[in-house]
DNA sequence: CGGGCAAGATTGTCTGACAGCCTGACTGTC
DNA sequence: GACAGTCAGGCTGTCAGACAATCTTGCCCG
């Protein structure tokens, strides 16, 4: 621990495997809606567009399929996963459960500087509540980064990240509800207040409440928005 | 519904993709400890042993890596994942949270015949508590199958199944503790009693307690058993 | 006895190819 | 004119072979 910049993530890691780069690229394209749910992902097209070979493309699609972002139909190929409202509700339910667990762990284990960082992250969320959606997302990502760092469980972080990514598949209409960003900020403030008070149960409950509200907002928007 | 055997699982689907067969094969080999944690999985050896081509092997390894059963080190290849005690504890914690959620859903949604099936599954667990480990596992698998069918969430089932599989990576010493099967059966009986009483909170709490006990047993065994 | 170097082993990736299945259009018949 | 059967094309599933990059291992030399 003498030099933190040394071995930030083990020595080398200069050139990430090509496959990892492509996975990240395609995943971001899906989460950024440049690839829309239901859209077919034809292997040959990806080969041409990305300039990589077909075996690599296939490995990438398999990986994203296990993550739940693409759905592979045998003999038919891959499509960007289109969530059913039921699936989305289930995913939110699991998020509520696991993020409450993360918050509880945070209260029990996080160092004081982690608590400070979490407070700062909520401050930032409140500040950006009326900014562009992209800035809001960035602030929220920062919040979760601090939360999971402080709660200190790699498997938990990995699983929740996967759930969040899948939920994002229907994010199109969830952020743009008037007043919702302010509500969300207030709910997260309640979480942090409980964290600062050292009340794990209250913090977990507040966190679960936040996710439930977010789910309600997103799902009602889904039902009333599109007749499909 | 005139003829149930008709379209049992849609007409064809006779020949599952080769890749899926191989994934199942390797996964079962890992969970059955025919491939031990830490063991290297050399692509060429798998090619020869399984009689399939290298691209297929690579897709299989990538898929199992995302599932967490194998760990891929860049430029070094794949090894069967070896859990650290901390990781195992975290996985049990997540299982407690999510299986409690599943039980709660079961209380709220399951049909009466599902409840009956769950009772029957616990009966079977009690009956096999002193039988061979394989029969115990089979009874437990049956219990979970009923539980998740009744709680009706595919994403939840999928996620928990993944967690259970990863936990099983250290199952070697967890079942053979004297008296533990009887304890586990009693704990699951408590879950089912609460389910029959329609008390979702009690059932979820009982379920979480069961997982916590299982975790304690498995982890203490891990710490005292091997100096590694 | 330690360190550097070379050979072997293994992964990462590409090219090319072929069989099987699904989709969609075309054509022939009623 | 509408419907059904057939055929061509597209795409996936899988294989074989090959080559560069990189890591490991063991040997040789200082």
Automatic annotation (TrEMBL), chains A, B:
Residues 16-83 form the HTH gntR-type domain. Keywords: DNA-binding, Transcription, Transcription regulation. SUPFAM superfamilies: GntR ligand-binding domain-like, Winged helix' DNA-binding domain. SMART domains: FCD, HTH_GNTR. InterPro entries: GntR_C, TF_FadR/GntR_C, Tscrpt_reg_HTH_GntR, WH-like_DNA-bd_sf, WH_DNA-bd_sf. It holds the Pfam family FCD. PANTHER family: GLUCONATE OPERON TRANSCRIPTIONAL REPRESSOR (PTHR43537:SF24), TRANSCRIPTIONAL REGULATOR, GNTR FAMILY (PTHR43537). This is GntR family transcriptional regulator.
């Amino acid at each position: 621990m003498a030099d933190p910049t040394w071995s930030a993530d083990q020595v080398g890691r200069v050139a990430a495997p090509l496959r990892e780069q492509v996975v990240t690229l395609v995943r971001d394209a899906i989460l950024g809606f440049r690839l829309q749910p239901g859209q077919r992902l034809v292997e040959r097209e990806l080969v041409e567009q990305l300039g990589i070979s077909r075996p690599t493309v296939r490995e990438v699609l398999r990986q994203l399929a296990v993550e739940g972002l693409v759905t592979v139909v045998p003999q038919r190929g891959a499509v960007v996963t289109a969530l059913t409202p039921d699936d989305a509700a289930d995913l939110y339910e699991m998020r509520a459960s696991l993020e409450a667990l993360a918050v509880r762990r945070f209260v029990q284990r996080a160092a004081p500087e982690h608590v400070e960082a979490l407070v700062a992250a909520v401050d930032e969320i409140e500040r950006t509540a009326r900014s562009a959606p992209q800035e809001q997302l960035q602030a929220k990502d920062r919040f979760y980064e601090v939360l999971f760092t402080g709660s200190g469980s790699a498997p938990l972080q990995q699983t929740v990240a996967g759930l969040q990514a899948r939920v994002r598949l229907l994010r199109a209409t969830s952020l743009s509800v008037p007043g919702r960003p302010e509500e969300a900020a207030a709910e997260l403030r309640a979480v942090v207040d409980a964290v600062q008070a050292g009340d794990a149960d209250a913090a977990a409950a507040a966190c679960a409440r936040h996710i439930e509200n977010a789910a309600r907002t997103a799902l009602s928007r889904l039902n009333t928005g599109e007749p499909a």
